[in-house]
């Protein structure tokens, strides 16, 4: 296959020849036998890699399945996703992670790398079979109780020690449970005005500080999920300055949206579409997160794609589920927050959304530069134009997007997984 007229990382137009799942040739004026795709001058990026996706299967197939979730990922330009462990049953054994891994291989819209639970049943009492999951066919390297915090310091220490044996990483959902009991939104001026129980920044920052110290103490790798506050950024910056092995991610929604939306938004007040964990924070937090992503303090953009069926979201605020879908809008949101603001160029986007997450997740074959001989995992993205977000067009089974009623720039034109198109002209193949 030949892809005509694409701009690698936004550079000069070239053509690509894909053969046997690899990039076989790069240059102007390529011709030859086989299918030809017109890239139309799109930006070519290495296929995106998500460190934090909820695929919901097994157990909540009414919200998402491996099939629909990976279709959603492909439409968003992703060639690999890490599937979080908070399924039912929980992915806390070799059997469950292999089941998720096999479903990913069968559906094939993108690679599915299961994340293993840190504790049995996400209950925070007893370590799960981390070694068995690492040794399984799914070769798990990322472990997380995401959705819940590993709040017990001794268990967290043991997990960090254990994963060293197979170069694993513990990805922490940093939320001090006692400080966030009944929390409904960011603790601040808006929560005070609305009378909703607040989720204070310190509940995130205290756990991150503790875990950075623990990771340094045992010489292990820590990854911090969905960083949401300016204070967290300062702590991570400090830990990195010490040379500690700490990485961090930020979600697209925390780079763009603020807690004011709970009070006043295009879809009204108290709309649970904005209810998410960790919560949307303040403008000052958003600015700090953008700066941290730009300077590398935060390594990765991860979606925290969290599909929920209508009945779990279209209810009163206090009863609604927390979370937003994000795979199909992530690149557009990053363009809006980071590229159009001059904070990141396309090389920076490729690093934060492909190379860095593949490196942290120890995912071979992904996140590599678009060079001759590299796996043909790539995304073609047209950054021109703005369109209204249309949840009805999502491939995801769920529609809980916070961008309804807004416009976003750009669109994913095509996605290729090992040389095979999973998306062409914006549509699933
Ligand atoms: Zn989480």
UniProtKB/TrEMBL annotation:
Q: Does the keyword Metal-binding apply?
A: yes
Binding sites annotated in the UniProt record for Zn(2+) 2? 146, 173, 226
* Gene3D superfamilies in the record: Metal-dependent hydrolases, Urease, subunit C, domain 1
Q: Which InterPro entries match?
A: DHOase, DHOase/Allantoinase_Hydrolase, DHOase_cat, Dihydroorotase_CS, Metal-dep_hydrolase_composite, Metal_Hydrolase
Q: Which PROSITE patterns match?
A: DIHYDROOROTASE_2
Give GO MF terms, alphabetically: dihydroorotase activity
A Pfam family that the UniProt record links to this protein: DHOase
Which residues of this protein are catalytic?
304
Q: Which residues bind substrate?
A: 54-56, 86, 277, 308
Q: What is the catalytic activity of this protein? A: (S)-dihydroorotate + H2O = N-carbamoyl-L-aspartate + H(+)
Q: Where is the Dihydroorotase catalytic domain?
A: 42-230
Q: What is this protein called?
A: Dihydroorotase
Q: How is the cofactor bound?
A: Binds 2 Zn(2+) ions per subunit.
Species of the source? Nonomuraea indica
Q: Which UniProt keywords apply?
A: Hydrolase, Metal-binding, Pyrimidine biosynthesis, Zinc
Per the record, the pathway is:
Pyrimidine metabolism; UMP biosynthesis via de novo pathway; (S)-dihydroorotate from bicarbonate: step 3/3
- What EC number(s) does its UniProt record assign? 3.5.2.3
Cofactor list: Zn(2+)
What does the similarity note say? Belongs to the metallo-dependent hydrolases superfamily. DHOase family. Class I DHOase subfamily.
* Residues involved in Zn(2+) 1 binding: 52, 54, 146, 304
Q: What does this protein do?
A: Catalyzes the reversible cyclization of carbamoyl aspartate to dihydroorotate.
């Amino acid at each position: 296959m030949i892809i005509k007229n694409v701009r690698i990382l936004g550079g000069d137009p070239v053509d690509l020849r894909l053969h046997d799942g690899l990039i076989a040739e790069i240059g102007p004026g390529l011709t030859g036998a086989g299918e030809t795709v017109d890239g139309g001058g799109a930006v070519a990026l290495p296929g995106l890699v998500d460190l934090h996706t909820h695929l919901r299967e097994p157990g909540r197939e009414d919200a998402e399945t491996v099939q629909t979730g990976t279709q959603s990922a492909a439409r968003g330009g992703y060639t690999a996703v890490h599937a979080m462990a908070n399924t039912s049953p929980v992915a806390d054994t070799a059997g469950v992670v292999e089941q998720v891994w096999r479903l990913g291989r069968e559906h094939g819209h993108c690679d599915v790398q299961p994340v293993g639970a840190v504790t049995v049943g996400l209950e925070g009492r007893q370590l799960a079979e981390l070694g068995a999951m690492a040794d399984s066919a799914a070769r798990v390297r990322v472990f997380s109780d995401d959705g819940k915090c590993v709040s017990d310091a001794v268990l967290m220490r043991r997990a960090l020690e254990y994963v060293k044996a197979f170069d694993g990483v513990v990805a922490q959902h940093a939320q001090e449970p006692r400080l966030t009991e009944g929390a409904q939104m960011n603790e601040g001026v808006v929560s005070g005005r609305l009378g909703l129980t607040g989720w204070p920044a310190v509940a995130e920052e205290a756990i991150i500080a503790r875990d950075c110290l623990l990771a340094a103490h045992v010489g292990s790798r820590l990854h911090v999920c969905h960083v949401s506050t300016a204070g967290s950024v300062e702590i991570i910056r400090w830990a990195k300055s010490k040379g500690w092995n700490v990485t961090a991610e930020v979600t697209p929604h925390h780079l763009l949206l603020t807690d004011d939306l709970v009070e006043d938004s295009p879809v009204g007040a108290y709309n649970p579409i904005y209810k998410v964990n960790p919560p949307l924070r303040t403008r000052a937090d958003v600015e700090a997160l953008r700066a941290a992503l730009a300077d590398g303090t935060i390594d990765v953009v991860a979606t925290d794609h969290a599909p929920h069926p209508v009945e779990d979201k279209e209810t009163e605020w206090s009863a609604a589920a927390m979370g937003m879908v994000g795979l199909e809008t992530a690149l557009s949101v990053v363009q809006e927050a980071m590229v159009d603001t001059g904070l990141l160029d396309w090389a920076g986007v490729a690093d934060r959304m492909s190379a860095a997450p593949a490196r942290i997740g120890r995912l071979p074959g992904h996140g590599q530069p678009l060079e001759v001989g590299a796996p043909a995992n790539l995304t073609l993205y047209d950054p021109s134009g703005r369109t209204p977000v249309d949840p009805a067009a999502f491939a995801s089974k769920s529609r809980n997007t916070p961008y309804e009623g807004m416009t976003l720039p750009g669109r994913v034109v095509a996605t290729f997984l090992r040389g095979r198109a999973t998306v062409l002209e914006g549509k699933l193949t």
